[in-house]
């Protein structure tokens, strides 16, 4: 689903966020992306969502070379990627329903047509009955789940999550992770950037590790990586 | 339908949304309508700031359209004065009555000529004696110094400055004519004056239109920057620039619609205000001239210009600023 080939990213000013990163995430897989802050986790996700372009190397999604995607095509690419952010990125002046339905409106659904899908998505994240509320009336965990419902509402084949549990307590975090696991079980590819290593250790999924912009473990060798080992923290 | 799913079989549960082309087309218009109404709703939610911009747009257009009314009326007046153009032909004194009559007929039958009036030298002298005040002094003259005069009124098509002058030159060539005059200088001066006024009004109008575009553009720019986060989120979930731009373009459109109506009202009030003084001025010239305001066609043109300027201003703003907002 995602393939990085010798991808480097340098920001103006010379900061090298990623150095020759290569890995492959097959369709339908769930993987974690871990590393210290500033290791390049967010940059990697941003390259997948075309919020950044690589300085060198190629990123391929589903066989499409992202270097060949023009500016005008970016929106259509993003419609196939569900993105979840630490800060939720919800529209505060719109109801939960309208927030979740936003990708559908953009696709060309009317409100009544979007209803069934929005309800299904909210049901999935356990927020049935909150449609008419505004995000501000919800707790942090609930807001995060609204963000997840928005990401999955048009059933994208790929989900990206950047620190989705960053502001949540351990119990809620685990709930959110179980939610991602359930999407993975129905065939969605999921890539989660997180620094919650204890949680990663409990989940038993592939773990990609970045350190100073280099991928020091692509999680494929069995037993090659202990998320709680001192050297990675 | 997205880029990633083309020719790719998805596992259950991760199927792309499928929407046909016809649906997409239909929804484009439904979306447009929703966004048009939505942006009208946005205007009503911020009535004061919207009203300020709309008033600036409307009142800025009021000046050019009032000036247009003035120019239009002054053209009507000068067209009226054009009809006064007539050519005086001074004839040789040694002509026989028969020759005079023949010449008169010949001129009358010219296609450029509407009518001719013959003023014979005796009646001219009599009139001169009565109106000039020289009275008895003229009696000392041995002979009548005045020539016979043929006053030629050209047809309406030949009353313009250029054509009347051509006719004058043609008539001057006639054997019977000693000299001919066409009192056109004042007409030329008037027309030149009208042209100066027209041009400066047009320049002023253009400047005001540019100002309107800039003001609308700036308002829309602020609206875009106010909704920066929202635009970023919409881009993240796959909204095209076009989709994001449309509400702002519609805002500009509504500015034009309402601004145009304000321009109508303000122009009518202004025309009504000055028409009283114009009627008084016309009365002093023994004229029943009345100021005509904007007719239906003019109003439509003002409206179209207002909407065009609103759209242009918002288009400039969205072109520059919507594309510049990139999600972070």
Automatic annotation (TrEMBL), chain A:
ATP-binding in keyword set: yes
Residue stretches spanning the membrane: none
Domain ABC transporter, residue spans: 2-232
The entry's keywords: ATP-binding, Cell cycle, Cell division, Cell membrane, Membrane, Nucleotide-binding
Subcellular location, record wording: Cell inner membrane; Cell membrane
Topological relation to the membrane, as annotated: Peripheral membrane protein
GO annotation terms (biological process): cell division
GO cellular component: plasma membrane
A Pfam entry, by short name: ABC_tran
Any one Gene Ontology molecular-function term assigned to this protein's record: transmembrane transporter activity
InterPro entries: AAA+_ATPase, ABC_transporter-like_ATP-bd, ABC_transporter-like_CS, ABC_transpr_LolD-like, Cell_div_FtsE, P-loop_NTPase
Subunit structure, interactors included: Homodimer. Forms a membrane-associated complex with FtsX.
Family designation: Belongs to the ABC transporter superfamily.
Functional note: Part of the ABC transporter FtsEX involved in cellular division. Important for assembly or stability of the septal ring.
Record-given protein name: Cell division ATP-binding protein FtsE
Source species: Aliidiomarina sanyensis
Automatic annotation (TrEMBL), chain B:
GO CC terms of this entry: cell division site; plasma membrane
Domain of life: Bacteria
Membrane topology note: Multi-pass membrane protein
NCBIfam families, alphabetized: FtsX_Gneg
The keyword Repeat belongs to this UniProt entry's keyword annotation: no
Domain FtsX extracellular residues, every copy: 86-178
Main location class: membrane
Keyword Hydrolase applies: no
Pfam families: FtsX (PF02687), FtsX_ECD (PF18075)
InterPro entries attached to this UniProt entry: ABC3_permease_C, FtsX, FtsX_ECD, FtsX_proteobact-type
Source organism of this protein record: Aliidiomarina sanyensis
Protein name: Cell division protein FtsX
UniProt keywords, alphabetically: Cell cycle, Cell division, Cell inner membrane, Cell membrane, Membrane, Transmembrane, Transmembrane helix
Record family assignment: Belongs to the ABC-4 integral membrane protein family. FtsX subfamily.
Domain (ABC3 transporter permease C-terminal): residue spans on this chain: 205-320
Compartments, as annotated in UniProt: Cell inner membrane
Record field: transmembrane: 201-224, 253-279, 299-318
Stated role: Part of the ABC transporter FtsEX involved in cellular division.
GO biological process terms, semicolon-separated: cell division
Classification of source organism: Bacteria, Pseudomonadati, Pseudomonadota, Gammaproteobacteria, Alteromonadales
Assembly: Forms a membrane-associated complex with FtsE.
């Amino acid at each position: 689903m995602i393939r990085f080939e010798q991808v480097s990213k340098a920001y103006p000013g010379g900061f090298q966020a990623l150095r020759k990163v290569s890995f492959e995430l097959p369709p339908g897989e769930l993987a974690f992306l871990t590393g210290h802050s500033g290791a390049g986790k967010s940059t990697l996700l941003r390259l997948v969502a075309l919020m950044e372009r690589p300085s060198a190397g190629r990123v391929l999604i589903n066989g499409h070379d992202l270097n060949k995607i023009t500016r005008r095509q970016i929106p259509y690419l993003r419609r196939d990627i569900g993105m979840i952010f630490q800060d939720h990125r919800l529209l505060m002046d719109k109801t939960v329903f309208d927030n979740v339905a936003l990708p559908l409106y953009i696709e060309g659904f009317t409100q009544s047509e979007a209803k069934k899908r929005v309800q299904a998505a909210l049901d999935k994240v356990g927020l049935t009955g909150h449609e008419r509320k505004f995000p501000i009336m919800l707790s942090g965990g609930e807001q995060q789940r609204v963000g997840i419902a928005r990401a999955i509402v048009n059933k994208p084949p790929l989900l990206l999550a950047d620190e989705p549990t960053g502001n949540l307590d351990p119990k809620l975090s685990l709930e959110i992770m179980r939610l991602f696991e359930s999407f993975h079980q129905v065939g969605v590819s999921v890539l989660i950037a997180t620094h919650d290593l204890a949680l990663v250790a409990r989940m038993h999924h592939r773990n990609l590790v970045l350190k100073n912009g280099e991928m020091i473990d692509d999680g494929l060798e069995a037993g090659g990586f202990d998320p709680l080992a001192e050297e990675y923290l | 339908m997205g880029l990633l799913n083309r020719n790719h079989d998805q596992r259950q549960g991760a199927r792309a949304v499928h929407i046909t082309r016809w649906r997409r087309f239909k929804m484009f218009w439904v979306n447009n309508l929703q966004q048009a109404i939505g942006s009208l709703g946005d205007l009503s939610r911020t009535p004061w700031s919207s009203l300020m911009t709309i008033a600036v747009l409307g009142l800025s257009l009021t000046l050019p359209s009032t000036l247009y009314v003035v120019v239009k009326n002054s053209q009507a007046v000068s067209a009226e004065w054009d009809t006064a153009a007539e050519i005086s032909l001074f004839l040789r004194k040694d002509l026989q009555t028969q020759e005079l009559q023949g010449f008169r007929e010949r001129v009358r039958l010219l296609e450029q000529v509407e009518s001719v009036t013959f003023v014979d030298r005796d009646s001219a002298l009599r009139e001169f004696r009565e109106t000039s005040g020289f009275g008895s002094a003229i009696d000392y003259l041995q002979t009548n110094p005045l020539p016979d005069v043929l006053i030629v009124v050209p047809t309406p098509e030949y009353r313009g400055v250029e054509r009347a002058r051509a006719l004058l030159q043609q008539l001057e060539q006639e054997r019977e004519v000693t000299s001919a005059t066409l009192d056109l200088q004042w007409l030329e001066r008037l027309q030149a004056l009208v042209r100066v006024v027209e041009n400066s009004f047009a320049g002023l109008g253009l400047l005001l239109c540019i100002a309107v575009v800039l003001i609308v553009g700036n308002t829309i720019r602020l609206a875009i920057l106010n909704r920066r986060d929202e635009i970023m989120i919409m881009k993240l979930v796959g909204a095209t620039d076009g989709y994001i731009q449309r509400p702002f373009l519609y805002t500009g459109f509504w500015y034009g619609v309402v601004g145009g109506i304000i321009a109508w009202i303000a122009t009518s009030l202004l025309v009504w205000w000055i028409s009283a003084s114009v009627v008084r001025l016309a009365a002093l010239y023994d004229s029943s001239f009345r100021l005509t305001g904007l007719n239906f066609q003019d109003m439509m043109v003002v409206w179209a210009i207002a909407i065009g300027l609103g759209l242009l201003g918002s288009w400039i703003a969205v072109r520059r600023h919507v594309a510049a907002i990139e999600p972070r």
